[in-house]
């Protein structure tokens, strides 16, 4: 990043309607650190617990409508917790309760209803083998993410809220999506296709950040 003189910073601040604060010693306080590199993003995430539940669960996790039955791949969730350890994800998902059909085993593609408030069965746990963060834009306004769990892989984009209380991840199963990277827009941007079909539902998973 190019060095910017204090005068230039002050001029920019006036243009934006803000002024950088100064300490008692007169030194300019640049505010909280920016997460503008992959290492800074990982340093923030390390040791944190990310939790998605309730209204933070999107209608289409991984790009698949949670109300549609896809057998063991049905994307109906009650809660997902990710613990970030040593630059990897230790993920536990509680499945939601899907209902529909005539009471028998439904055919794939059957439209029913996902109750995200009611857990069903045993939690599923996965530990990643590798997580790659790259192409960081601005102050973690968007960064590309690849997650390798061994038995399956996810790819997409993510962001960290300015107040550092939420991580937003828009992930899809490997090689199934296009238009899902930061070069295409920030998480939630339009233009994503899943298996060649235009995505018309929200797929951004919102995770509350805690220690």
Describe what is shown at a glance.
By secondary structure, the protein is mostly beta strands. The chain has 2 helices and 14 strands.
Detailed description of the structure:
With 211 residues, this protein is mainly beta. It has 2 domains: 1-31, no CATH class; 38-210. 9% of the residues lie in helices and 42% in strands. The strands form 3 sheets. Strands 6-5-4-3-14-10-9-8-7 form a 9-stranded antiparallel beta sheet, with helices on one face.
Count of the separate structural domains: 2
**Main sheet record:** 9 strands, antiparallel
Number of H/I helices: 2
**Structural class of the secondary structure composition?**
mainly beta
Amino-to-carboxy terminus distance: 30 Å
- Helix content range: under 10%
Low-confidence stretches: 1-23
Please state roughly what percent of the residues sit in beta strands, choosing from under 5%, 5-15%, 15-25%, 25-35%, 35-45% or over 45%.
35-45%
Order of helices and strands: HEEHEEEEEEEEEEEE
Rg (C-alpha, Å): 20 Å
Widest sheet: strand order? 6-5-4-3-14-10-9-8-7
Gross morphology is globular
How many DSSP-defined strands? 14
Mean pLDDT: 88
């Amino acid at each position: 990043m190019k060095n910017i003189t204090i005068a230039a910073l002050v001029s920019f601040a006036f243009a934006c309607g803000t002024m950088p604060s100064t300490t008692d010693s007169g030194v300019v306080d640049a505010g909280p650190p920016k997460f503008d590199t992959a290492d800074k993003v990982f340093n923030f995430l390390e040791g944190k617990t990310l939790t998605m539940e309730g209204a933070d669960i999107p209608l289409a996790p991984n790009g698949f409508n949670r109300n549609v039955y896809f057998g063991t791949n049905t994307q109906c969730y009650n809660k997902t917790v990710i613990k970030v350890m040593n630059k990897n994800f230790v993920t536990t998902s509680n499945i939601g309760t899907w209902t529909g059909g005539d009471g028998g085993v439904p055919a794939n593609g059957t439209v029913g209803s996902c109750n995200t408030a009611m857990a069903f069965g045993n939690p599923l746990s996965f530990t990643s083998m590798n997580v790659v963060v790259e192409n960081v834009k601005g102050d973690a306004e968007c960064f590309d993410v690849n997650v390798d769990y061994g038995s399956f892989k996810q790819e997409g984009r993510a962001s960290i809220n300015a107040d550092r209380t939420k991580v937003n991840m828009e992930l899809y199963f490997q090689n199934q999506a296009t238009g899902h990277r930061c070069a295409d827009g920030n998480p939630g941007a339009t233009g994503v296709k899943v298996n060649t079909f235009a995505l018309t539902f929200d797929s951004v998973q919102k995770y509350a950040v805690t220690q």
